[in-house]
Amino acid sequence: MSGRHVVFLESNLTGSGYEAIAAARRAGHRVTFLTRDLSLYLAPGHERLDLGLVDEVVTCETNDPAAVVAAVRGLAHPADAIVAVGEWHMISGAEASRALGLPGPDPAGVRAARDKSRTRRLCADAGVPVPGFARVGTPEEVHGADLAYPCVVKPLDDGGSNGVRLCRDADEAADHVRLLLKETHNERGQRKIPAALVEEYVDGPEVSVEALVRGGEVSVLAVTRKELGELPYFCETGHHVPAALGSGLDEACADVAAAALRAVGFDFGAAHVELRLAADGPRLIEINCRPAGDRITQLVALGTGVDIPAELVAMYLAPGDAHPLPAPGHHRAAAIAFLPAVEGVVTAVTGADEAARLPGVLDVGVYVGPGARVRPLPNNTARYGHVVAVAPTGPEALRRARAAADAVTVTTARA
């Protein structure tokens, strides 16, 4: 199967997209990177794209499926697959693949997953446990929603925890809806759905279920325990695999995630399904019809032996393969801890070499250097870097990762 041509439609900036590109290159495939703005992937402040892994970069309006189709048709080498791994371009990828007769998920399932209110309705109708919710098109509609407080208010189709906030009462929720509705486009220049989701706050641990789906068959590979920062925002500060929740909760989470994927009709690709553990069991928070970011795919590979980005590329190139989806093993636990950013201009970065020598540490990534101007936002982009560590258990791996992260010092001055 070597020598095939894989077109990657944009990427996320948090690991799995770049891992998929590297996997395609390792397998001997030709790699084309389709983007509307290559400079985004080369800028400081996040992980950067290694252009040495790409045979060709093509610029087009990737937010428009028709433009993607035209760009792919114009390539000198016919494409065998269009792989979208980032949140923002799953719909474009699915629709372009369908138009070109290439493998990919049903676009209707992807659209249902990208609209959080539609996800809620379909899942609730299918009996999947979800928080109480209401879709609102104006701030005034918040006061008519029959929901308990505090509640969570979020955009319908954004990502990276952008705009997600805990609100104490109806007035605060209405104010946040008003703020969200002023933002008509997301960070990739796409027009957002002009409405918001107001939902019951589930006060419990957060986890995610990592899965591969082919022909509607769901293969759950891992349950990830997620660590969050201080409320009222929901910024992710670290993760560990396996979650090892005990009391049958890992299996219950896997069952809820699989049922949710079936309910929205997501039938092909990788999935990252987020849940909260209420007192009476897991409840669906959202479905992401792509691999997890934040290097969770790396943690899954370290913990189970399954390389999700590599498996995803292989699925796209052999969608009708009769071989079973991979079964996870258990090798060790792995964790990631992020270095939280503060506002200012970076003047020095020290301690990374020392951090890399600490027990269990496999990877220390620093995204900034002297001169970088940092303007943190209340979302998952407010990071200086990350540390990945392994240990016999998830909590121990997370402790090691955090200790190494604490050993890295980023000094800043006021901008």
Tally of helical runs: 11
How many whole angstroms does the radius of gyration measure? 21 Å
As a percent range, the share of helical residues equals 25-40%
Main β-sheet, spatial strand arrangement: 13-12-9-10-11-14-18-16
CATH architecture descriptor text of the largest domain: 2-Layer Sandwich
Major beta-sheet overview: 8 strands, antiparallel
List SSEs in N-to-C order. Answer: EHEEHEHHHEEEHEEEEHEEHHEEHEEEHE
CATH level 1 name of the largest domain: Alpha Beta
Count the domains. Answer: 4
Oligomeric category: single chain
Secondary-structure-based class equals alpha+beta
The 3D shape can be described as globular
Give the full name of the CATH homologous superfamily of the largest domain: ATP-grasp fold, B domain
Portion of residues in beta strands equals 25-35%
Overview in brief:
The protein is α+β, with helices and mostly antiparallel strands.
Would you kindly provide a written description of the structure presented here, covering whatever features stand out?
The strands form 4 sheets. Strands 13-12-9-10-11-14-18-16 form an 8-stranded antiparallel beta sheet, with helices on both faces. It has a 4-stranded parallel beta sheet with strand order 3-2-1-4, with helices on both faces. Helix 1 (16-26) packs across helix 9 (308-317), helix 2 (65-73) crosses helix 3 and helix 5 (116-125) crosses helix 7 (249-264). It is built from 11 helices and 19 strands. A hairpin with a 2-residue loop joins strand 9 (206-214) and strand 10 (217-228). With 415 residues, the chain is α+β, with helices and mostly antiparallel strands.
